[in-house]
Amino acid sequence: MKNPERILQRLEWTVIRRLDGLLQGDYRTLFHGFGLDLAELREYQLSDDVRYIDWNVTARMQMPYVRQYFEDREVTAWFLLDLSPSIDFGTVDTLKSNLLLDLVTLLARLLTRHGNRVGAILYDSQVKRIVPAQSGRLHVLRMVNDILNQPQPQHTAMTNLADLFETAFRTIRRRSLVFVISDFISTPGWEKPLSVLAQRHEVLALRLFDPREMELPDIGLTVMEDSETGEQLFIDTHDKRFRRRFEESSQRREQELNTAFRRAGVDVLKLSTEADLAKEMVRFATIRRQRKMSPASFARTNERLVRVG
Q1: Longest CA pairwise span in the chain (Å)
Q2: Letter string b/e over residues 180-210, b meaning 16 or more CB atoms within 10 A of that residue's CB
Q3: CATH architecture of 75-289
Q4: Spatial CA neighbour of 289 closest among 19, 52, 39
Q5: Is the predicted pLDDT of residue 232 greater than 80, yes or no?
Q6: Nearest to 51 by CA among 263, 194, 201, 203
Q7: What order do you get walking across the sheet with 127-134 strand by strand?
Q8: HSE of 245, CA atoms in CB hemisphere, 13 A
Q9: Strand 76-82 relative to strand 177-182: parallel, antiparallel, unpaired?
Q10: What are the boundaries of each domain within the chain?
């Protein structure tokens, strides 16, 4: 049985200490909030909250601009956790479920170290538990323990993430930072509830995958089982055409997921079971910073503001 304290200690030594050096202890690039310190002024994007439009600058620039603030007050963060059977895929010690656990522990501790509160909604085929948002290291350990003690789901119908997002919309009233941690193997139709959730909260999707889900290895005759439904298929992986069709199907799914995230207006970080978490967190911070204000956009903004006085 895994020990929450040992999991947290391992991450504090192997990831958080490295992040302190790589991000100089400043996690604002990861967690933009709703405080009073101005982070940047940038052009409005479709996913932005209209409440943060700066109407004075918009009138001067003849196009909508929004203000992005650094968090200088308490952040409330929620983890929407997909614990469905497909999460238990991977190789020894590198299951997607292990990655999910590390991510929750890492992000929750980064947030609570600065006095913020974190909560969680645990889901497999249905919402099983809602962990109220609280602060402190002890709360992180309790939340991790709840995840570890969540009963293993039996074979069910396909996961429906729309249920998770609709529950979160009803449950989380105060504007919060919401992390969705899932492999997004689900029945279609979840992007609209995710988009509705993102209109109220700042939503970040952390999509888990294992490289073997993208490209089928040549391992001969084997039985493959659908972890969600229990359906089994006997296949011949020596067949190059079959492996090519498998890869093409994976590529189509990638395109569909990317389209769904764009439509929902949600930032997504794709995380492999072989990922280096410290490097991935820094990469995600860089991506979010560049998306919010690219160098070209920053230069255009300065130039226009100077020109109009």
Answers
A1: 72
A2: bbbbbbbeeebbebbbebbebbbbbbbbbbb
A3: 3-Layer(aba) Sandwich (3.40)
A4: 39
A5: no
A6: 201
A7: 127-134, 117-123, 76-82, 177-182, 202-209, 267-272
A8: 8
A9: parallel
A10: 75-289
Beta bridge pairs of residue 117: 76
- Angle, helices 137-148 vs 96-112, to 10°: value is 160
Four-residue CA torsion sign, 169, 174, 180, 181? negative
Q: Note the pLDDT of residue 46.
A: 76
Model-level pTM greater than 0.70?
A: yes
The single-letter code of the amino acid at 265 is: G
CA–CA separation, 65 and 80 (whole Å): 31
Tokens linked to 84:
């469905």
Distance of CA 180 to the CA centre of its chain: 4
231, 296 contact by CB (below 8 A):
no
Radius of gyration of the chain (CA): 21
Please state the φ and ψ torsions of residue 49, each to the nearest 5 degrees.
Answer: -80, 125
Lowest mean pLDDT among 24-28, 78-82, 205-209, 256-260: 24-28
